[in-house]
Amino acid sequence: MASAAPRLNRMFSEQGKCFDVAVDHGFFNEFSFLSGIENMKQAIETIVQANPDCIQLSIGQAKWLQAVPGKKKPGLVLRTDAANIYGTELPRFLFSELIDRAIEKAVALDAVAVCVNLLLLPGQPELHHQCVRNISLLKSECEKYGMPLMVEPLVMLPNEAKGGYMVDGDINKIMPLVRQGVELGADVIKADPCDDVTEYHRVIEVASGIPVLVRGGGRASDQEIVNRTVELMNQGASGIVYGRNVIQHPNPAGMTNALMSIVHHGAAASEALAILGGEGAK
Predict the structure, then answer these.
(1) What counts of helices (H) and strands (E) characterise the chain?
(2) I need a labelling partner for 261 at 20 to 30 A (CA). Which of 17, 50, 84, 112 fits?
(3) Cβ–Cβ < 8 Å for 191, 170
């Protein structure tokens, strides 16, 4: 069994922190997800210049990152499953399908980790079962190649409650799903924030020492995102995985720099907002 440590060392800082910018939204066949990333080459160039720790991409778009010359580019986190659960109406048949030979492809693309969903939708046990099976299959291959496995436990509200892709922030649902991801062999957990982020230490605790990176979700105001990130880091999170709050922001590079200051340097909300304001003024 090969060790995942070398790749994890590339993914996380010496202090064990990571900011992963998710730009894999085109994988999910939703028009609204393309906002800000219509031109992927340009979007990735912008993010690379801001220098987060990682960029999360699909197999068809990873080339834009790995074509960048030099040693100082972010690590690749490869998304391994395409799902069809993100629309305003759920289709008759739900799936979260693994790409073929995902881990071999991740190795060939020099990925630092792979990411896979652990979905929990109300009344959809078949989908949850498929995700458990996907994780189990990936785990065996990850161990063979020394590839870190990032599991994304995602608890969603019924579509009729708020429309498509709405996160259920109930900590009593998030905690057991996070723990299931850990029990299935996750090396990293990518989880939602709970409704009251001051309780997030409970999620960190049930993760049993596995680093937790917190998802950003839909677009929110600068103040909300910065304040939430500061509190989540104070609660013990190892970092963040934000997508739309970076790529759909008017100043993606400035937002990346502001968030990096929180994740890696413990910046206060006022300091991070000052960085964002300064970047915006250039």
Answers:
(1) 12, 10
(2) 112
(3) no
* Separation of alpha carbons 255 and 9, rounded Å: 24
| Of residues 162, 181, 84, the one with CA closest to residue 127 | 84
Tokens, residue 43: 């979007």
Determine which of 118-122, 126-130, 164-168 has the lowest per-residue pLDDT on average: 164-168
pLDDT grade for 79, boundaries at 50, 70 and 90: very high
Query: How many C-beta atoms lie closer than 10 Å to residue 223's C-beta?
Result: 10
3-state secondary structure 112-177: EEEEEEEEECCCCHHHHHHHHHHHHHHHHHHHHHCCCEEEEEEEECCHHHHCCCCECCCHHHHHHH
**Which 3 state secondary structure label does DSSP give 55?**
strand
How many angstroms separate the CA atoms of 110 and 87, rounded?
A: 32
CA 105, CA 252: separation in Å to the nearest integer?
29
What the block records as the tokens of 44 is 């990735």
Q: At residue 87, what is the residue type?
A: G
User: What are the CA-CA distances from residue 68 to residues 19, 36, 76, 150, 151 (Å)?
Assistant: 19, 20, 12, 24, 27
Q: Are 68 and 61 in contact (CB under 8 A)?
A: no
Question: What mean pLDDT is reported for the chain?
Answer: 93
Question: pTM (2 decimals)?
Answer: 0.95
Beta-carbon contacts of 244 under 8 Å, excluding residues fewer than 6 positions away, are 25, 33, 35, 36, 216, 217, 218, 219
Res. 280 pLDDT band, cuts 50 70 90: very low
